[in-house]
Specification:
Length: about 400
């Protein structure tokens, strides 16, 4: 019946995976990094191709997707978040993410407020937006013409791919389970260090830490295939990278806190606070509370949760934290310096000289605490600088 209806199972599987991969790449590069966050500026050719392909394979409207995603960042992990598993439950987001998306797409206030700046040309106004189902219907027809009745199965997989992997897995599992490189003020996680299946979106905690970065990988062992494609497009002069997450380097021999130090520290809050959490808070808790029986280890786990989420504690949790701190002078000191470190970013009205003095004072005092992890962190902070992009 179809032009290629004699293809075998594995050949059809390979074609299906290729088609769904192109769709994932279109979502992560065009909708997410270029449209929603303006991290990449795409040329006319890839921009029009991605938009046309998404019309064929998903029927999603650019303005709606962008608006819903931007609202997710603006209202993350609150009742107003369109798809937070912390609020709505993992199962509801994982298996019903597409329904949550569709429901939020009907909220005109969301679309008007968060959907600005998306394409508004003749194609968008007269084809893509008013006739989203025409594209997926055309894709079904092409599938049947090319592969016979097997094309129907290929089409069904395509239709389920984004609702499950993007709306379900990334929005659900990516805020519930995985590892965290950065102590971002939400529950985002990296599902896997190898970002291929979902185009690099697996590195979701990295994205929430650096929302406007075109590159989602942060560590040397992480791979973001979406970033690889962006670099390839940039080499072909079909894309321009507007912003990537800054990377810090440390000169351990640097003794003087200078303007470069202040710029690196105050310009990279997420990195600095995350480094403090991993290099000071966690090892100190382990030393203070994890060396004895089960009750103490449970207290250590509680202390870690409380200290790492201290800016967002409710009254009961804050009282529990104060009880734990009262039992350990070392933990109390670490907590005090954590709060003082966070306060450095609240002094935005200070002059450059005053900011330099504040950072220098924090480092000098931290080096005198007698707490090894805190002293070593303060010494490293002296050598902070930003690696040129």
């Amino acid at each position: 019946m179809g032009l290629f209806s004699d293809l075998g199972f594995w050949q059809l599987t390979g074609i299906t995976l290729l088609l769904t991969h192109i769709t994932i790449v279109s979502v992560t590069i065009f909708l997410h990094r270029a449209q929603a966050h303006r991290a990449v500026e795409l040329g006319a050719i890839p921009s029009h191709f991605f938009r046309f392909w998404l019309w064929l394979t998903t029927g999603m409207i650019t303005r709606e997707w962008v608006a819903i995603h931007r609202k997710h960042h603006a209202k993350c992990e609150t009742d107003d978040d369109p798809h937070s598993p912390q609020v709505k439950g993992l199962n509801k987001v994982l298996w019903g993410g597409a329904l949550l998306y569709s429901r939020e797409a009907l909220n005109r206030e969301t679309i008007e407020r968060y959907g600005r700046g998306t394409p508004d040309d003749w194609l968008e106004r007269h084809v893509y937006t008013p006739y989203p189902f025409m594209g997926i219907s055309l894709m079904l027809l092409l599938g049947v013409l090319l592969f016979g009745w097997a094309g129907l199965l290929v089409w069904l997989v395509q239709m389920a791919w984004i609702p499950f992997w993007a709306a379900g897995v990334i929005n659900g599992v990516g805020h519930f389970w995985g590892y965290r490189n950065w102590n971002s003020p939400d529950a985002s996680t990296n599902i896997s260090p190898i970002g291929i299946l979902v185009g690099g979106e697996e590195l979701h905690n990295n994205h929430h830490a650096f929302v406007s970065s075109a590159r989602l990988s942060s560590k040397w062992y992480e791979f973001d295939i979406g970033w690889m494609y962006i670099r390839l497009l940039a080499l072909l002069r079909l894309a321009k990278v507007r912003k990537v997450a800054p990377r810090l380097k440390i000169d351990r021999n640097k003794a003087q806190v200078d303007v470069e130090t202040v710029t690196a520290v105050l310009g990279n809050r997420v990195q600095v606070l995350s480094h403090f959490a991993s290099q000071v808070v966690k090892p100190t808790i382990k030393t203070e509370l994890s060396q004895s029986p089960q009750a103490c280890r449970e207290k250590a786990r509680l202390a870690k949760r409380l200290l790492l989420d201290s800016p967002h504690l409710d009254h009961a949790a804050r009282q529990r934290l104060q009880q734990i701190l009262a039992e350990s002078h070392v933990l109390e000191t670490v907590y005090t310096y954590q709060q003082r470190l966070q306060q450095l970013w609240e002094r935005t009205a200070l002059s450059q000289e005053a900011r330099l003095e504040a950072v220098q004072e924090w480092i000098v005092n931290a080096e005198k605490t007698g707490i090894t992890a805190l002293e070593e962190f303060a010494q490293r902070l002296r050598g902070y600088s930003v690696v040129p992009a």
